[in-house]
Amino acid sequence: MNYIHTSDIHNLNSPNTILPILFEIFKPKSILDVGCGIGTWLKSSSNLGVLDILGIDGEYVNRDLLLINEESFRGFDLNFEFNLNRQFDLILCLEVAEHLSESSSNVLINSLVKHSNVILFSAAIPGQGGQNHLNEQWPVYWVEKFSKHGFVFLDIIRPIIWDNPQIDFWYKQNIFLVVKESHELAAKFKSSSLSLVHPELYDAKNQIYEKRIAFLERQLKVHPLKRWIKSLIQN
């Protein structure tokens, strides 16, 4: 899998807004970011005082663009299961799962649950679209996979950030806290995994369809067959 990271998408706006909200609920001392890209979320985490950080992503990541020390990054193909032989207080896996083939989905989940009991998880829904999306799924798909390992979904971030213009819509739409059933957070918050489509995505798709319809209407106006039919009617 190859992926091109751009500054207009991969910036600190979303992590700088979301992580302080999460840290009010649960403050980790160590974080593993699976599919970390250039390290935006880890950079924000370190700015908030988390010093034990590690990011994993494909070898295609441009090291010159990393916002974290290269020592805190490991290149690895996430289509394969990995074991770091340690635990982290928190795992981040944000808008990553859809970039892997469906056959690798269980592999990814196995790798995540092996390293932490608390996972901030976000994955693209069907029709969301994006660069190299291979496996867009509704939340229930991921709920079922995590539940086999004794994890539940907590929908405690989305209601807080839903209308925040500083945050990318895909996080506002897809982000959940996934925790082990035995974790104190699972007892504190009700499990929920409602499938939602954010208005920003809905509006963006509508604009695309409206442009396509307008294009087709223009084509029909100049199409030879239509001109011929129109001439027959007039005659």
UniProtKB/TrEMBL annotation:
Signal peptide: none annotated. GO terms for molecular function: methyltransferase activity. Keywords: Methyltransferase, Transferase. SUPFAM superfamilies: S-adenosyl-L-methionine-dependent methyltransferases. One of its GO terms (biological process) is methylation. InterPro entries: SAM-dependent_MTases_sf. This is Methyltransferase domain-containing protein. It comes from Algoriphagus kandeliae.
